[in-house]
Amino acid sequence: MGGISCSTPKQHQSIPNAVSRTKGKIVMDGTKGRIPVVPYVKPALSSFKSIYASDLKVKRSFPSMEKALQIDSVWMSSFTLPKELIQARFGTRLPSWSGYMEVAHADSGPYDVSEVKFLPFINLDPTNLSCIYTALNFASDQCRKQQLKTCFVTFDQPLFMKATEISTGCPELKQVVPVNHKSYMYNSSDIYVTCCIGEIMSGSGLEDLFATVYAKNSVPQIMSGHSYARAMRAHSLAQQALGVIILKNEIVADSTILAELSSLHQKLMGGEVSCEETRPVACKIRKLYQDKCLELSALNRTAKLWIEYLNQFELVRLFTRAMRCGDWQLYLDSMKAMLPYFHAAAHLPYAKAVHIHLQKMEALEEEMDPFEFENFTR
């Protein structure tokens, strides 16, 4: 098993025997670059018996999600502007969602540069319980040396469940918090969500829509989420097209909103206003979009299905934004909103792992040192 250490800010911690990046072939001699294996004796009674799935914190409103969706509505509605107006004011084509978010969140606040270091290897199969136990002990030792009260160790889904079982039954590892790697890394979670979207929307005609842009043989890979980049691009194009259809008549018919949107978009792209300053106009557009979606959903089941599709992909965007901007509350809220779709698509092992992960993350505020929690979530 290999691993990496991520520290923020850079040079905040030093890892003894860290493996430096080199060119060419690496030759390991003896115990250099390796962690001594600590055998793990599995107890007769599984530690999972002491883990109870409790209800997650329920909120009546999600301010972090609503603010993000308002900015998304401004981006989506910008494509409803008349072509002549776009060419006159912006010259080139409008940016994609990623480009728009990069400009909109350019002043999101101060940040620190992180450092990634390669850790020594554990010469065991990663699925071996002794290997996971050794990794947790190594992380715990490094945590104590850095005088940190809490240490986060990330694993992929199968290893996360094993690490959770081990850490729960070992009092000496109480400061170590196993983290579901696929819940904490945005591309992996997005793969699962896009897979859920593909399964839920199977047979709806979405495949035929994608086939107009992508090769027919690549569409199944897009629907399953295995072709991640294509899936994100395809869903983004579909959302953009549907959003324009929903909003175009409403915005063009209202000259006041059209003028406000055009002016706001120009200022936002020019860096003249911040996200907070776009709030009044963004709220209007978001409400207009929501009202129109409710109106269309009431017409028939087909319209309701496609509106639900838009809502599903909005969650993908929210989660991506949370990871890129380091928005802790948006991260938790978007993950909670994804849970029903994991169950609907019968991804039960992943739904179980995400629920346990969220349960642990919600408990951090009470269990962690206040200073460490503030630095971790800011």
Automatic annotation (TrEMBL):
Superkingdom of origin organism: Eukaryota
Region (Disordered): 1-20
Protein name as annotated: Major tegument protein
Taxonomic source organism: Frankliniella fusca
